[in-house]
Amino acid sequence: MNLLIMGLPGAGKGTQAAKIVEQFDVAHISTGDMFRAAIANQTELGLLAKSYMDGGNLVPDEVTNGIVKERLGQDDIKERGFLLDGYPRTIDQAYALDQNLADLGIALDGVINIEIDPAKLQERLSGRIIHKETGETFHKVFNPPAGDYNEDDYYQREDDKPESVARRLEVNIAQGQPIIDHYRAKGLVHDIDGDQDIELVFATIEKVLNNLK
């Protein structure tokens, strides 16, 4: 079974990806893992990617796409299938993935799309606060400090501030929607309600994947 998993930041994509990999024994492929492996193995593309990263630059799409193709061509993928996580990030990468899968003779079986209202994700992602003295992490709504706490004793990381979260969600929606539309036109997208208990989300995904087998 060959799958993509998609979802906005905070939608629980990482949690569900781990459950899918465990239950269905497919290879979990993330761009971070692929880059680290290619660099460690000193492949030509890995060394090229490292040269960009060492210079503080973004790795060009053609290098990223090549590293993905290298990974998809390995023997374990033929035996187990894969779950691609965090790729493609742009519609151009999606087109490249289509071509690379065709070159390798691999068919994509489905795209798991975890959906949550962006307003709820905004609340979820921008509520994290950190105690200045202890470094302990809390959430204003879901895991607040005990009692009447003094907000001056806590701080937020820049990434957790509401304006940063809103910007990150906007970018992800703008990049992700064309990809979902692309695969929806191919009849591959399975929308999953992510605004429920983690186990219920996975039960829905499991039902979809069992029907794909």
TrEMBL record:
Q: Does the keyword Nucleotide-binding apply?
A: yes
One Gene Ontology BP term is: AMP salvage
Give binding positions for AMP.
T31, R36, N57, L58, V59, G86, Y87, P88, R89, Q93, R157, R168
Q: Which domain of life is it from?
A: Bacteria
An annotated GO cellular component: cytoplasm
| Entry keyword Cell inner membrane | no
Q: Where is the signal peptide?
A: none
> Any idea which UniProt keywords this protein has?
ATP-binding, Cytoplasm, Kinase, Nucleotide biosynthesis, Nucleotide-binding, Transferase
Entry's localization field: Cytoplasm
Which pathway is this protein assigned to? Purine metabolism; AMP biosynthesis via salvage pathway; AMP from ADP: step 1/1
The residues listed in the UniProt record as binding ATP, with positions renumbered to this chain, are: G10, A11, G12, K13, G14, T15, R128, T137, F138, Q196
Give the main EC class: transferase
Gene3D superfamilies according to UniProt: P-loop containing nucleotide triphosphate hydrolases (3.40.50.300)
Give the protein family. Belongs to the adenylate kinase family.
Biological function: Catalyzes the reversible transfer of the terminal phosphate group between ATP and AMP. Plays an important role in cellular energy homeostasis and in adenine nucleotide metabolism.
Per the record, what about its domains? Consists of three domains, a large central CORE domain and two small peripheral domains, NMPbind and LID, which undergo movements during catalysis. The LID domain closes over the site of phosphoryl transfer upon ATP binding. Assembling and dissambling the active center during each catalytic cycle provides an effective means to prevent ATP hydrolysis.
Quaternary form? Monomer.
Q: Per its record, how is this protein called by name?
A: Adenylate kinase
Organism of derivation: Streptococcus ovuberis
